[in-house]
Amino acid sequence: xxxxxxxxxxPVVAVCVALVLADATSRAQxxxxxxxxxxxxxxxxxxxxxxxxxxxFLGLLVPASAARRSVFRRVWDVVTGGRDTPVMAQPYGVTxxxxxxxxxxxxxxxxxxxxxxxTGGYSKLDVESESLIGVAALGGRLFVTDxxxxxxxxxxxxxxxxxAIGSETGxxxxxxxVAADDRLHVVDTLAHRIVTVSPEGRVMGSFGSRGxxxxxxxYPTNIARDAxxxxxxxxxxxxxxxxxxxxxxxxxxxxxxxxxxxDFNRPKGVAVDSEGHIYVVEGFQDVVxxxxxxxxxxxxxxxxGQGDGELWLASGIAIANDHIYIxxxxxxxxxxxxxxxxxx
Length: 344
What we know:
The structure is a single chain. With about 350 residues, this protein is mainly β. It has a domain at about 90-115 and about 125-335: Neuraminidase (6 Propeller). The chain has 2 helices and 25 strands. The strands form 6 sheets. It has a 5-stranded antiparallel sheet with strand order 1-2-25-24-23, with no helix packed on it. Strands 3-4-5-6 form a 4-stranded antiparallel sheet, with no helix packed on it. A 4-stranded antiparallel sheet has the order 7-8-9-10, with no helix packed on it.
């Protein structure tokens, strides 16, 4: 295994994620998630000992009714097309909003799951949609992308639609979405561009075109933003990550097609931590790859499977207070990991 660079020194912020910690199962019946830390097996960490651990598995976020369904039953329902749509069917986009609320867009259940990571609370917003992919929070409202319908929608806190824009504005297949200070950046996959939208639904501009040059895209899918306002775009069929200014000017790019450490085959969700490290969900290898700000590969965590810390066609990723939330799509759950601070 490639060892992480000594530059990874991510502070562990004392954020409360009671619903996934070891004592989660001892809380009131019907809690939003089940904890895993009270099992006899040791917690999973990456890299493997004796190297210093940099990432630790914390637990799972799943609605209580979904947690009670066995893995076999969930797989059987997929194979047979069972009638009952599970509470969490196909989580894709994920974002952390204000007040410690994690929002998860579920493309198959046509809903947004809302987890309160401070209290363990859970609620679900049903959304009239065909395929919810991206979700962003801004100014007390939610913004979601419906890729099949070709729409971006604004929802209030109760999940009621405030406005929707689509083909009349030139949108073709909106997928990833990220909130900036006063605007939204939307990935329009089929148009090979990024569209900027105001919180009121006005298209403010766009950048990008099809190609392989800096600032061009080939079926981009996901997008993230760092604290300085830089944008990180998963340029999927160019098998690279692009870093751009908020105005769309190219800063740098890294990555190429392959199946080795640091390579891309099916790059999906992207996020940036407080130290500027870049995390990319690699769907083909079922891992999350970590790169430094210059695009150098540092470490991968996760592996294919259905157990703790294992992924099955994972998609979206969000980082808040240096806790990592991954939409583990085909396992119908969100997994939570933690960065461990390097001893000084």
